[in-house]
């Protein structure tokens, strides 16, 4: 018998109670948090969709592996296990363990960057861009045009525009290109996948001009799912084999293990070039730690090594992608303007069209994250003008390209009934959408203001 229902492919061994707050309590919590969900306490949240990063539930095998953690300063067995798992996947000889993704970024892009250097990506994640710009270099995003239109279907909206890639390399000169970075899946572009063909095309151009090709691979297993199901040539490949093939195309990779390695903290940098690896290892030792542990304890390396294997399990990936799609499709049926198709780790909503009556300088995305919290205790993040807006010389807002709200789904944490609860909250979100008011910022930091800003609700 072929059963259509997809179940969570795990049993729950340890549970974390959720405090079921009331709407009246949440209104109070929201006021105390100055209408910024980042300032809420986690116990005030019913369903936490702020991020899929570092929020995974670890498996019994990962917890068991942690007991094997070898905490020796140098040459620990746990390091050997992590090295073997990473090498098996990436085929890159040099592996540098870091405490999370941005530490790997700072080491690599800090070394390759500097004034006059240029980095090119399908879309730089914000910490990637920040590390590049902090070095004095410039970062250019060149997603394909379909990637910017969130109503049309395209199987690989995360692809890089390879015509523009070649133009940019020629314009700036190959010697001035710090690296070309392919982010899989493309987080800032809506969690959309990158095809193997696109990765091959990017690799060929990088090879032609002798430019370093880096994979930002924190969601590479989720990306492999889409390749298997949307790129005919790969339909009989295993997810792991697809990932191995993609790594084989690249010269280097940075990974935030907090995503597809199913751990709460960790990351790494892998390289093929010996000289580059030596330079980066020196930087690793200065700020992260010795080469055989970097930013990680032995037990962290053990859990990471197991997570890298578990994430490629067929049943897990099927459940993961299908459950994200389930949330997206169900709220789309209710008329919620979601980015389409649904990406791997999150559902993105176009707040500017949901709340067309709220002008951009009154932050429709912020209004939506506050409403989702007020009505359902659901915490998520605005990815719009609060996060990326700038001011002109007269203090007028220059809005972001899009006013999105991201509902990110932690791995192996919520069951279908949690997701059905979120879907039901959207009934009320749709009913009351015309009455929702905008917000003004009353306090903000100069950099990355979304984390700490205070807001006031407009009347
Ligand atoms: N690259 C990508 C594509 C990411 O999504 C992230 C983090 C990083 C690099 C940085 O890794 O957090 O371990 O230092 N993304 C998280 C998110 C924060 O919520 O999307 P990190």
Describe the structure.
- The chain is an alpha/beta fold.
- The chain folds into 2 domains: 174 residues, Alpha-Beta Complex (Aspartate Aminotransferase, domain 1); 251 residues, Aspartate Aminotransferase, domain 2 (3-Layer(aba) Sandwich).
- It is 40% helix and 14% strand.
- The protein is built from 16 helices and 16 strands.
- The protein has a 7-stranded mixed beta sheet, with helices on both faces.
- Helix 14 crosses helix 16.
- The termini are far apart.
- The model has no long low-confidence stretch (mean pLDDT 96).
- The structure holds ligand F0G.
What is the architecture of the largest domain at the second tier of CATH?
3-Layer(aba) Sandwich
Strand content: 5-15%
The largest beta-sheet arranges its strands as 2-8-7-6-5-3-4
CATH level 3 topology of the largest domain: Aspartate Aminotransferase, domain 2
CATH superfamily of the largest domain: Type I PLP-dependent aspartate aminotransferase-like (Major domain)
Termini separation: 57 Å
**Biggest sheet, open or closed, and with what strands and sense?**
7 strands, mixed
Number of strands: 16
Parts with pLDDT < 50 across at least 5 consecutive residues: none
What's the mean pLDDT score? 96
Shape: globular
Return Rg in Å. 22 Å
Query: How much helical structure, as a percent, in the residues?
Result: 25-40%
Summed up, the domain count is 2
**CATH class (first level) name of the largest domain:** Alpha Beta
Bound molecules: ligand F0G
The helix/strand class is alpha/beta
Total number of helical segments?
16
């Amino acid at each position: 018998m072929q059963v259509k229902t997809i179940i969570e492919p795990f049993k729950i061994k340890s549970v974390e109670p959720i405090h079921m707050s009331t709407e009246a309590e949440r209104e109070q919590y929201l006021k105390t948090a100055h209408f910024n969900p980042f300032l809420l306490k986690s116990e005030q949240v019913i369903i936490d969709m702020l991020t899929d990063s570092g929020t995974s539930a670890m498996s019994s095998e990962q917890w068991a592996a942690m007991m094997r953690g070898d905490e020796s300063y140098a040459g620990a067995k746990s390091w050997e296990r992590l090295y073997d798992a990473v090498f098996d996947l990436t085929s890159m000889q040099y592996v540098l363990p870091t405490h999370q993704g941005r530490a790997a970024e700072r080491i690599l892009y800090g070394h390759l960057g500097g004034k006059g250097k240029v980095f090119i990506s399908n879309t730089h994640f914000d910490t990637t861009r920040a590390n590049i710009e902090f070095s004095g270099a410039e970062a250019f995003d060149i997603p394909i045009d379909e990637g910017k239109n969130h109503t049309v279907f395209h199987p690989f909206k995360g692809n890089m525009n390879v015509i523009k890639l070649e133009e940019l390399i020629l314009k700036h000169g190959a010697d001035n290109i710090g690296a070309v970075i392919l982010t899989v899946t493309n987080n800032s572009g809506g969690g959309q996948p990158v095809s193997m063909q696109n990765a091959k095309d990017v690799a060929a151009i990088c090879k032609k001009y002798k430019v370093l090709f880096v994979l930002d691979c924190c969601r590479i297993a989720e990306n492999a799912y889409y390749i298997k199901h949307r790129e005919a040539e790969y339909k009989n490949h295993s997810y792991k084999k697809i990932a191995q093939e993609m790594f084989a195309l690249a010269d280097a990779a940075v990974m935030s293990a907090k995503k597809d390695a199913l751990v709460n903290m960790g990351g790494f940098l892998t390289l093929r070039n010996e000289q580059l690896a030596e330079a980066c290892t020196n930087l690793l030792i200065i700020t992260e730690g010795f080469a055989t542990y970097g930013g990680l304890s032995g037990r962290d390396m053990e859990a990471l090594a197991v997570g890298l294997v578990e994430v490629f399990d067929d049943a897990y990936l099927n459940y993961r992608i299908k459950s994200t799609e389930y949330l997206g499709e169900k709220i789309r049926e209710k008329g919620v303007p979601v980015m389409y198709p649904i990406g791997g780790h999150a559902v993105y909503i176009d707040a500017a069209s949901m709340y067309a009556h709220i002008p951009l300088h009154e932050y429709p995305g912020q209004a939506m994250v506050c409403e989702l919290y007020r009505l359902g205790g659901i915490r998520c993040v605005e990815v719009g003008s609060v996060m990326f807006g700038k001011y002109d010389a007269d203090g007028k807002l220059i809005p972001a390209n899009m006013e999105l709200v991201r509902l990110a789904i932690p791995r192996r944490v919520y069951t279908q009934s949690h997701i059905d609860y979120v879907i039901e909250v959207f009934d009320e979100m749709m009913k009351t959408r015309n009455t929702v008011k905008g917000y003004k910022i009353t306090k903000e930091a100069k950099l990355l203001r979304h984390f700490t800003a205070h807001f006031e609700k407009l009347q």
